[in-house]
Amino acid sequence: MEGRLDAMDLELSETQQLIVRSARDFAQREIAPKAAALDREERFPGELVKGLAELGLMGVNVPAALGGSEAGAVAYALAMMEISRACASTAVTMAVTNMVAEVITEFGTPEQRERHVPKITAGEYQAGAFALSEPQAGSDPAGMTTAAARTDGGWVLNGEKQWITSGAYAGVMIVWARTDTPQDRRGARGISAFLVEQGTPGLRIGRAEDKLGLRGSNTVALSFEDCRLPDGALLGQEGQGFRVAMVALDGGRIGVASQAVGISTAALEAAVAYARDRKQFGQAIAEFQAIQWMIADSRTELDAARLLALRAAWLKEQRRPFSAEAAMAKLFASEAAWRICDRAVQIHGAYGYVKDLAVERHLRDVRVTRIYEGTSEVQRMVIARAALR
Ligand SMILES: Cc1cc2nc3c(=O)[nH]c(=O)nc-3n(C[C@H](O)[C@H](O)[C@H](O)COP(=O)(O)OP(=O)(O)OC[C@H]3O[C@@H](n4cnc5c(N)ncnc54)[C@H](O)[C@@H]3O)c2cc1C
Q1: What is the DSSP string of 271-282?
Q2: Is 377 in the pocket of ligand 1 (CB under 6 A)?
Q3: Residue ID of nearest Cα to ligand 1 atom 16
Q4: Of 65, 142, 147, 304, which is least packed with CB atoms within 10 Å of its CB?
Q5: Does the CB atom of residue 142 touch ligand 1 within 6 A?
Q6: DSSP string, 295-358
Q7: Which residue has the higher pLDDT, 12 or 5?
Q8: pLDDT band at residue 9, thresholds of 50, 70 and 90?
Q9: Is 54 a catalytic residue?
């Protein structure tokens, strides 16, 4: 439980302040006005990716030499909160893309880094994708069946992936596959990671999922049919792919916690404004203690979620263990965000139940933060394992 009681510096550095200011400004000026339409039209936020890239937000925690902002994990979490406050669909596109850039930077060869990361950070690729889940392997990714077999000079990939964010738009995807054989099953140690470029023959993109929320984000199945990859597609060591995935997911969970904080910040702000404005029984509903208590609970839970997310990001930035802290942040922030968005709908009454106001979208968008990058149940497993170790 190292790091649990450490004090962290709550003052933002100049770089962090700059990232927050530019993310907030772009989010409120360019993204927020488009969010309802992206949701309604199920439109991928391709037009916004370039703007995010120009501000350095497609590689916040990526070295400047690769086109990133090199601003660290805390700046990334803060930027993610700002973008999510405006549009969760744009935020998840940005989150997965940042994660892919970080993973290639950390585990890639110099050639792999040079080939892909600058295209991600510059917005030349519309997105990056992270293909771990399969139709029959979600919470238990070690049960995956997608397989990569060695051939002359490379690999041949066969299998199915499911629920892949930005799969239809990503310039590069990290795809996990078994590299052990049916005769010699090695469990998690039989899994390797590969870089697959969009348009590789044998890669087929499925239809976009019709989702409850994040409707502006793209979620697809991928199928690989004798998809040939060069030798240089292997990311990290053969058999070490599961570790790559776990390291990536630890960081990704800080991103999801930050998404939950951002979405629920927007919901609470809307609820406060509405409570002041809406009159019943001859007074603003904000005068009723029942409404005030909902706002007080939401405010408290939001601050707690924000602090947990920033602590996990801070530990990551300090290169200290942060796996359990990221799981706690993701668990608490996603569950609190659901309650905050639900209270925001309640405070709006019937007006909260229709698409004219954004709280309806926030409630739908926030639900998935309890599911992806490991469900709440999986986070509890990670936290309990660390506590009982
Ligand atoms: C919008 C969206 C985007 C996504 N994007 C990506 C992506 O980009 N890349 C990617 O790889 N995946 C992605 N996913 C997949 C996501 O990570 C999985 O849905 C998630 O890991 C859960 O897997 P599952 O849906 O198969 O549920 P299952 O694993 O089948 O779980 C079903 C239920 O059983 C519970 N459960 C499972 N095992 C246990 C256990 N041991 N103890 C207690 N309870 C348990 C779960 O918590 C859950 O409640 C995305 C999903 C969505 C909805």
Answers
A1: HHHHHHH-EETT
A2: yes
A3: 372
A4: 65
A5: no
A6: HHHHHHHHHHHHHHHHHHHHHHHTT---HHHHHHHHHHHHHHHHHHHHHHHHHHGGGGSSTTST
A7: 12
A8: confident
A9: no
Mean pLDDT of 173-192: 95
Q: Which residues contact 33 (CB under 8 A, 6 or more apart)?
A: none
Does residue 3 carry a pLDDT above 80?
Answer: no
Residue 212 has pLDDT above 90, yes or no: yes
Catalytic entry in 42, 54, 373, 377: 373
Does residue 144's CB lie within 6 angstroms of at least one atom of ligand 1?
no
**C-alpha 297 – ligand 1 centre gap (Å):** 29
Q: What are the structure tokens assigned to 327, written together? A: 């799981």
Paired tokens of 212: 């409850």
Number of Cβ atoms within 10 Å of the Cβ of 212: 11
pLDDT tens-digit readout, 251-268: 999 999 999 999 999 999
- The conformation of residue 209, written as its DSSP 8-state character, comes to P
pLDDT digits (tens, 9 = 90+) for 218-248: 999 999 999 999 999 999 999 999 999 999 9
375 lines ligand 1 (CB under 6 A): yes
Q: Is 96 close to ligand 1, i.e. is its CB under 6 Å away?
A: yes
∠ CA 335-336-340, nearest 5°, is 125
Nearest CA to ligand 1 atom 6: 164
Q: Under a CB-based contact definition with an 8 Å cutoff, are residues 138 and 157 in contact?
A: no
Domains of the chain and any CATH numbers: 14-126 (1.10.540.10), 130-240 (2.40.110.10), 242-388 (1.20.140.10)
